[in-house]
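User
New here, explain this?
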Amino acid sequence: MDITELYNVFLECGKVTTDSRTVSGGELFFALKGDNFDGNEYALMALEAGAAFAVVDGTSAVASEKDFLDAGGRSRIIPVDDTLKTLQELARWHRLNTYVNGRPVPVVGLTGTNGKTTTKELIRSVLAAKYHVTATEGNYNNSIGVPLTLLKITEDTQIAVVEMGANHPDDIMELVAVCLPDCGLITCVGKGHLLGFGDLEGVKRAKGALYDYLESTGGPAFLNIDDKELVGMAEDRADMKVIPYGAKVMGAKVLQSSSDKPFLRMLIHDGEEALGIDTHLVGSYNEDNVLAAIAVGEYFGVPLKDAVRAINSYVPSNNRSQMLRTERNTLIVDAYNANPMSMSAALDSFDAVQSPVKVLCLGNMGELGKESVSEHKKVLERLGHEPFDRIILVGEQFRLAMDEMKSGGKLAISPEWFATSEEAAASLNRVPVDGAAVLIKGSRSTRMELVIPAL
């Protein structure tokens, strides 16, 4: 079956799923393979549950195409050479064949080491002040998530916002070829996923695939001109069209936050008038994310006042830049991911929080490869210069860093270390924390959100 025929099948179904457990009736099911699963094993289950068709690996031992026929006599089993590549090809085809005002729906693509999901949600909120927006849900930004996002574009969609994540050198190049962004931005580049990228230069090459694509097509890149790494990457691509944003060029500044409301507050100028931005985001590092969203909104004709109103209304979720008040403590939860850049930014922001008692609950920074122990040692060295009432560390990388520093007589703090966040939570239940500001930060693998009930 060629892509045009498959696309007609998709249009009949109107929805796609890769999980047989979510079938409610009428879906086009894709049997994807992973390291620990084979969706072909669930294809028949999906059909029996009500999926209209199942796209399967042509070499798999799925039932004969003649065993499942629809009312018109067509086989409900569609064999292909590679189900993931077919899913991506279908998404690309749909992206190119869904029109707004006589042209394919415009797509905003974004990537970066930190801030992707928050920036994407802010852009979605700003654009939604004027348009019907389809955007990546959560951080579903990989080789499966990007095509599934594109396949959710409907005839009502006026703009799509697609987040792209990467763990390996060619990931962004692959995802850009699927979503074909009309414009885009890189939030920042830093030491993240070094296990796959090798070093910072590897990160820049991988993320820079978005810039390469935009340069080749003439689409604009929104560039944070306050970020020297991004400016350098842009200068290396002399033919890339740039739309600058940043505090100076946009006349914006961060205002001091209060101890009871440690949210990012800003002023931005709209001609002669200064507009106040009062976000629900904890951390001044979100300034760049806010300004990126305003810049994208301005490009698409969203008035600044409407953009500010949308940003003020956005409430973060999923353990990103959140403030939670419990009966006993104020928690700053930024525990969805962690790398050296985001850990430093979170600690910088926490330094500005005023509280009589300050506690840290920090988990491993994941996927740092050969630099992992040295980067965790840098965190420990920093903590030795700052007063905290209690420091709780979780994960093997922090233990290894502590051991090296102890042996060299350079560990200037006495943290509590635990192998897992569950053990840390148990300790917090035994020796409670009260009346404190608590920063909770760590990579997804450490599940630092599990300490929240104990606080």
